[in-house]
Amino acid sequence: MPWWSFSSSSSQSSSPSTPDPTLAYGSKKDKKPIDWTTSLNRIDWSHYTDPRNLIPVILLTSTCIGSYAFYRSYLRRIPQAALIQQKFWRKRSLFGTVTRVGDGDNFHLFHTPGGRLAGWGWLPWRRVPEKGKELKDRTIHVRLAGVDAPELAHFGRPSQPYGQEAFDWLSKYILYRRVRAYIYRRDQYDRAVATVYVRKWLLRRDVGLQMLKKGLATVYEAKTGAEFGALESKYRTAEKWASLRRMGMWGRKKGAFESPRNYKTRMVEKEEEQAGLRPY
To answer: Of 52, 100, 134, 143, which one is the catalytic site residue?
Structure first.
C-alpha cells in the first residue's frame, strides 16, 4: 500500500501553529512606553460624572454634613457654662430642667436640648439625673439677668431681710420645672447671665420680672456687667410699682429698706475695716 507523501510545508500549514514564546504578552518585544496622560485616559470617567451616580452622592454627603452641623448647634448637650460656644451668646437659648436653686437670683440648669421631641423625659437614656453625684459638673449655673435678690447668709455674712423669702419663692416657682434661658454672657463666677422664662398655665412668664413685681428683687444696679436684653424699661417700671404698693422688701418700715447692692457694699466695707484695709 503506497504512503502518501507530505511536504514540510503542507505539514506546517495543516498543523496548528504554536505561538512563539518570545512574542508572548508581556515580553520585552511587546512592551511599549505609555505616558501618564494616556494611562489616565484609559479610565472611564463617565461612570463618575454620570448624573445618576453623582447626584445621589452629593445629596447624601450634604445631608450628613448638615445633620452633624444641626446636631452640634441644637441637639448637643452643654454640661457647663464654660463650655458654651462664643457664637451662642446673645443668639441662642438653652432649654432644660432646674435641678437646684442656689440663691434668690441664681440656679442650676440641666440642659435638655430638643426637650421631649428629642426624647428627654421618656426615653430610658434621656432622663434628667436626680442624685447630686450624678449632677456634679453636668449643670449650667444660671444668673437671672437684670435683677438682684436679697442675699442669704454665706461667707460669714448674715442673711439680708427677705433673702430667705426670695429663695423660697424662686424654689417653688422653678425648681424641677422646665425653663428656657436666653443667654447673654458668662460672668466672673462662670455663670450664664440670662433672661429666664417658665410656662405657667400655658403662659410664658419672665422669672426676673415676676420677682420684681413681688418685691423680692430690685433692678440690678452694678456699675458694670448689668444685662437686661431689651427689658430694662419694663423691669424698672415693675420695680417702681412694687415700691409704691409696698410689696415684699418695700414693705419694711421707712428708712429700714436696704437694696441688695447697698447691702453688699456695706458688707465689703465692714470686712475691709475689720481687716485693717480701710480707715475707720
So the answer is: 143
